[in-house]
């Protein structure tokens, strides 16, 4: 039936409303970001004592706020992307949970006594003036913020830590030459490019293979789920208890290894006792389809992503505002900060609020890349990714290996994707030859050349990991440090010229 004129007019009105809403949102987001940065400026003006370098601290607070916005927009997607991609959480729900948990983690458990970058990565000479060190730090995290902003625009998840390291190296070399940099530390950063995604991907793939073996490949999936899902929830409870004790709550409590292990066992038992009757009730009347079984993993997945966000806020808020704390200490003492600097509450607040605001305003683009564009997610795969992130961080920390949470999460997603691709492509013909040759070599599998071509196309469709995102993300990882370093060096030279003039 042809549409009436009224239907066509209503469709035009709806399209106009959608376009208006999109335009309003595109204007509102930068406006809210500007308001937040003005608030950061006002906060610094209130809490920083008057002095000759006060104006630089106020400017640095604005830069720290900008950095926090970008950390929220890019880094937080690693935790929420798989849950959104699996449809376990809506985008709005994920944004709300992440904003609350990231902010809570930063305020409650963030602000651990951090070794300043000047001691860990830079070795400034005693004659370096305070203003030079402040300019190095300002250029470093402004460059990092700009680079992360650019990556977010293109939807590429990158390591904010690596961006800051590159920024510090670039401005440090521009200010005082290559001798100021502790170069051996950069070796650990380069090592993490390989270690982090490899560990995350391998562990996630093993977890997914375990779930498939114990549950999905069984004849009676429902009975297997009732038996093994509580065990997997217990594993998750124990791992995340140890994760929070060692990483997320380290400012509040630094337990011994025996306490961590005992806490992990206790929470594992509690997770099993709570989930076992719940799984039995929830599975009553269910069928044994994989999609139905996957729904049993939704509550554990949401719980895991919330805890990951809390721990991320506690650990990575220093990425956003750590240099600001060093600048505040330097401006207050009048000398380069080379000890340990505590993040003041007002500095933490800028980081916590900025991360939450950046996630809400600019996070959806990277969330969709992580959750939807690399490989198809469901609740079970997303659960394996979340659990893999916690296990990898714990394992790497115990071995003293440098890892990046961003690289772990993205590597875990690629890991489950490549496992799916491997299992899907087993038994299919090799498409690396011409169709006629393919037909001659696989006559037992293909009756005709057309069938050989069809199998070739089928295999191509079953490339379940989108290669363009793999190569694009890997390239962004590799160039983050040198790009941030170059940008930071240029910014330092420009800032130094303006201060001198």
Automatic annotation (TrEMBL):
Regions crossing the membrane: 27-49, 55-77, 89-110, 130-151, 163-183, 189-216, 228-245, 257-275, 296-314, 343-362, 382-399, 405-422, 470-495
Signal sequence segment: none
Compartment list: Membrane
Biological processes, Gene Ontology terms: phosphate ion transmembrane transport
Pfam families in alphabetical order: PHO4 (PF01384)
Alphabetically ordered keywords of this record: Membrane, Phosphate transport, Transmembrane, Transmembrane helix, Transport
GO terms under cellular component: membrane
Main location: membrane
Membrane topology, as annotated: Multi-pass membrane protein
GO molecular function: phosphate transmembrane transporter activity
Family: Belongs to the inorganic phosphate transporter (PiT) (TC 2.A.20) family.
Protein name, UniProt field: Phosphate transporter
Organism from which the protein derives: Aurantimonas manganoxydans (strain ATCC BAA-1229 / DSM 21871 / SI85-9A1)
């Amino acid at each position: 039936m042809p549409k009436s004129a009224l239907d066509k007019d209503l469709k035009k009105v709806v399209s106009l409303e959608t376009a208006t809403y999109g335009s309003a949102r595109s204007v509102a987001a930068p406006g809210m970001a500007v308001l937040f940065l003005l608030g950061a400026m006002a906060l610094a003006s209130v809490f920083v004592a008057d002095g000759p370098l006060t104006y630089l601290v106020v400017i640095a607070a604005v830069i720290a706020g900008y950095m926090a916005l970008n950390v929220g927009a890019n880094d937080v997607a690693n935790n929420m992307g798989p849950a959104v991609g699996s449809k376990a959480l809506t985008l709005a729900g994920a944004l709300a949970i992440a904003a609350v948990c990231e902010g809570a983690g930063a305020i409650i458990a963030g602000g651990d006594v951090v070794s300043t970058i000047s001691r860990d990565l830079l070795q400034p000479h005693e004659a370096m003036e305070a203003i030079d060190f402040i300019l190095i730090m300002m250029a470093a995290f402004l460059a990092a913020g700009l680079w992360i902003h650019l990556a977010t625009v293109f939807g590429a998840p990158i390591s904010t830590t690596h961006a800051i390291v590159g920024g510090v190296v670039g401005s440090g070399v521009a200010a005082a030459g290559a001798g100021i940099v502790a170069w051996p530390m950069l070796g650990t950063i380069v090592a993490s490019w390989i270690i982090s995604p490899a560990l995350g991907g391998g562990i996630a793939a093993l977890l997914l293979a375990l779930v498939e073996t114990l549950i999905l490949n069984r004849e009676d999936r429902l009975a297997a789920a009732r038996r093994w899902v509580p065990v997997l929830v217990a594993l998750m409870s124990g791992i995340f208890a140890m994760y929070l004790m060692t990483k997320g709550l380290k400012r509040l409590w630094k337990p011994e290894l025996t306490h961590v292990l005992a806490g992990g066992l206790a929470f594992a038992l509690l997770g099993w006792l709570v989930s076992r009757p719940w799984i039995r009730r929830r599975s009553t009347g269910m069928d044994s389809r994989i999609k139905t079984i996957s729904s049993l993993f939704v509550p554990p997945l949401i719980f895991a992503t919330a805890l990951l966000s809390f721990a991320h806020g506690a650990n990575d808020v220093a990425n956003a505002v750590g240099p600001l704390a060093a600048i505040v200490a330097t401006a207050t003492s009048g000398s380069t900060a080379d000890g340990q600097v505590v993040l003041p509450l007002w500095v933490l607040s800028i980081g916590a609020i900025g991360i939450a605001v950046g996630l809400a305003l600019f996070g959806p683009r990277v969330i969709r890349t992580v959750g939807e564009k690399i490989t198809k997610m469901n609740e079970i795969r997303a659960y394996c990714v979340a659990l893999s992130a916690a296990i990898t961080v714990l394992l790497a920390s115990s071995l003293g290996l440098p890892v990046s949470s961003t690289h772990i999460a993205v590597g875990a997603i690629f890991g489950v994707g490549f496992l799916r691709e491997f299992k899907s492509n087993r038994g299919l013909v090799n498409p690396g030859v011409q169709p006629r040759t393919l037909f001659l070599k696989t006559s037992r599998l293909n009756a005709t050349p057309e069938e050989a071509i069809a199998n070739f196309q089928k295999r191509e469709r079953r490339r379940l990991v989108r290669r363009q995102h793999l190569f694009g993300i890997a390239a962004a990882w590799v160039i983050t440090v040198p790009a941030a370093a170059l940008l930071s060096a240029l910014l330092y030279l420009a800032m130094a010229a303006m201060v001198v003039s």
